[in-house]
Design goal:
This protein is of the alpha/beta class. It is built from 7 helices and 19 strands. The chain folds into 2 domains: 196 residues, FAD/NAD(P)-binding domain (3-Layer(bba) Sandwich), CATH 3.50.50.60; 113 residues, FAD/NAD(P)-binding domain, CATH 3.50.50. It is globular, with a radius of gyration of 21 Å. Strand 13 and strand 14 form a beta hairpin.
Length: 330
């Protein structure tokens, strides 16, 4: 069992791990879970090599409250700084792992985190994923009556004993199928993709979806294109395919995996309260769920924060964690 599990390995997540270590938490009791293959993915992918990474938001002088601090730096310098923070604090980071569900034990301060790789238990959770975004949507209109049956992730509802269509051909589409087709979920899973081969998946997800198809656990509808959705029997969504051989097929749920992110849905499903588009936070960036904290961009409002904000929010959260949940050394 862990004392602190951190979801997201960007500046906020890494600094949260460093703060936990500085407050005396054993390295073996800290885990960072990151869905991509490397830390600080957004900086690495979207920042040009010659772009200056500004430490603080809107030009304010950086004032650091915790163990990590950084002035305006190049992309390389920023990544190197975060590399050293992981190494120096001996932080364990599980890459290529996606969190599907989080359960809070009703009888004690204990969370169970379910991912595509396994299950973990922890006293405290710090969520350090990126700023709220929107998923990519299909070109055709989704009827209003089907809103609760057409989803853009698999965290919005618990889907069991259902006929489900996943639409997409990337890693998320494969991962959704893998999760939905597990025996305990008892779903009948279909995957619709417009091409005849998967070109956007990493090799692990490609092999996984092909194995599931071979074993009959997922039915592949390759070279298929949905023209429109309509309301079928009992309010179920019907996918109307352009291809005559497919025609119209009814499903209990249709899930789109077309890119983009929607952590707002994920956070609401967990039970985190929102005031409009903004999560409601208490002292130390704690949510309405005891022991669950939001740090980094999620704690900074719609415009997002900065690297210094990420570092300082981690420090503020860790102080509250030590005050209420852990017996820290300092």
């Amino acid at each position: 069992m862990y004392e602190v599990i951190i979801i997201g390995a960007g500046p906020a997540g890494i600094s949260m791990g460093a703060e936990a270590r500085s407050f005396g938490v054993n390295k073996d009791k800290i885990l960072i879970i990151e869905k991509t293959h490397e830390h600080s993915f957004t900086i690495k992918k979207y920042y040009p090599e010659n772009k200056l990474v500004t430490a603080n938001y809107k030009g304010f002088t950086p004032q650091c409250t915790g163990v990590m601090c950084l002035t305006d730096s190049s992309k390389h310098e920023t990544i190197s700084f975060l590399d050293r923070a992981i190494e120096d604090n001996e932080l364990k980071v599980n890459y290529n792992e996606t969190v599907w569900k989080i359960h809070l034990n009703e009888n004690e301060q204990l969370f169970t985190i379910i991912t595509d790789k396994g299950e973990y238990q922890t006293k405290v959770i710090a969520i350090a994923i990126g700023i709220l975004g929107k998923p990519n949507k299909p070109e055709y209109k989704i009827p209003r009556e089907l809103k609760e049956k057409t989803l853009f992730d698999i965290t919005s509802f618990e889907i069991k004993n259902s006929k489900v269509l996943v639409v997409g051909g990337g890693d998320s589409a494969s991962e959704y199928c893998q999760f939905l087709s597990e025996e305990k979920e008892n779903n009948e899973v279909y995957l619709s993709y417009r091409k005849n081969i998967f070109t956007r998946m990493n090799h692990i997800n490609k092999e996984s979806i092909e194995t599931l198809a071979k074993d009959g656990k997922v039915k592949l509808l390759l070279e298929s294109n949905i023209e429109s959705l309509s309301v079928g029997e009992n309010g179920k969504p019907a996918a109307n395919f352009k291809e005559d051989k497919l025609g119209a097929i009814e499903f209990d749920y249709i899930i789109y995996a077309l890119g983009g992110t929607t952590p707002e849905n994920f956070l609401k499903t967990i039970g985190i309260e929102f005031d409009g588009p903004i999560p409601v936070l208490k002292e130390g960036y704690e949510t309405n769920i005891p022991g669950m904290f939001l740090i980094g961009d999620l704690s900074a409002g719609k415009k997002g924060g900065s690297i210094i904000w990420a570092f300082n929010s981690a420090n503020g959260a860790m102080r509250k964690i030590c005050e209420n949940y852990l017996q820290c050394e300092t």
